[in-house]
Amino acid sequence: MPDDNTFAAPVRDRTRPDRNLALELVRVTEAAALAAARLVGSGDKEAADQAAVDAMRHVLDGVPMDGVVVIGEGEKDEAPMLFNGEEIGDGSPPKVDIAVDPLEGTRLTALGMPSAISVIALSERGTMFDPGPCVYMEKIAGGPEIADVLDLDRPLGETLRLVAERKGTDIRDVMVVMLDRPRHEEAMKEIRDAGGRVRLITDGDVSAAMLAVSDNSPVDLLWGIGGTPEGVIAAAAIKAIGGAILGRLWPRDDEERQAALDAGYDLERVLTADDLVSGDDVFFSATGVTDGDVLQGVRYRGRGATTESLVMRTRSGTVRRVSARHDRDKLRALIGEDFYG
Fold first, then answer.
1. Which residues, including other chains, have CB under 8 Å from residue 260's CB and lie 6 or more apart?
2. Longest Cα pair distance anywhere in the chain, in angstroms?
3. What is the Cα–Cα distance from 207 to 178, expressed in whole angstroms?
4. Torsional sign, CA 163, 180, 289, 50
5. Cα–Cα separations (whole angstroms), residue 48 to 74, 110, 112, 297, 327
6. Three-class SS of residue 117?
């Protein structure tokens, strides 16, 4: 006689994601984007950010998961909601790490400028890189066809020549997107001296990283020193879209350097996407707040609104572009006047 368990159904691991949580998360980024978009052009970046945080936190409460914020709005004493270490979701399995930026581009939103987005990423518990005291990292990112030529130690001019060769184009056609910061002046000169071009952005290097790895993009490469939390979030997206991102921690001063060394961080180590987000089942959602190259922003029309989102899951390799129409009266009834007045 066979053992009683021979024909038993396999036991699911309830501690790991087993459904497409990205489809739950798109409601979260849509809510944050819709709330922030009410303040586009208002000149008040703090109010726009707070609106996005409040709406995102409100909707996250109902998502079926046991989440912990690893990349959030800061430490608890600085951020009353979505702070690092905060528990998120309804408490049911699976156990997951969460990275959020309710409004990437607070200044962009306040000034009515392009490419502000709301974004969230999720992976299995214990798989997201904790940057500790290091606020910034040096980054380089590009699409699948140039992923193997990316290098943080090679001179930028040489990398541009390799990118041009790989893409079968002239180096004068290679475009690098980077933040417009004084710390990048030397790199900008190096790129231009080599024959390449630079596209400067004021904010938003998660959006820029997504642009650098997307098909039919006007840019070929992301390079620069930007936020470490944004590097972790970008890595989650790139693991789904394809391509590569490399990062290396960049302490701002001697005090931060020593704090990182004391905490055991290797400041010479080059981190890959798998180092930044090591999970095999990573979920990502981003919704446009203002129009940009990657996503269309929120459009309010009468009592309705439209949003555009990118929703991804690494395990399936699925990337969905979701266009949604929202009824503001019904949203207010479901979620509250404070978010959709």
1. 132, 133, 134, 249, 251, 267
2. 78
3. 11
4. positive
5. 17, 7, 11, 14, 21
6. strand
Residue 89, judged by CB atoms within 10 A of its CB (0-12, 13-18, 19+), counts as buried
Say if residues 203 and 104 touch (Cβ distance below 8 Å). yes
Residues in the chain: 341
pLDDT in tens, 190-232: 999 999 999 999 999 999 999 999 988 999 999 999 999 999 9
Its pTM stands at 0.90
Q: Would you put residue 7 in left (φ > 0), alpha (ψ -120 to 50) or beta? A: alpha
Q: Distance from CA of residue 30 to its chain's centroid? A: 15
pLDDT digits (tens, 9 = 90+) for 139-178: 999 999 999 999 999 999 999 999 999 999 999 999 999 9
Instruction: Give the DSSP H or E segment for 284.
Output: strand 283-288
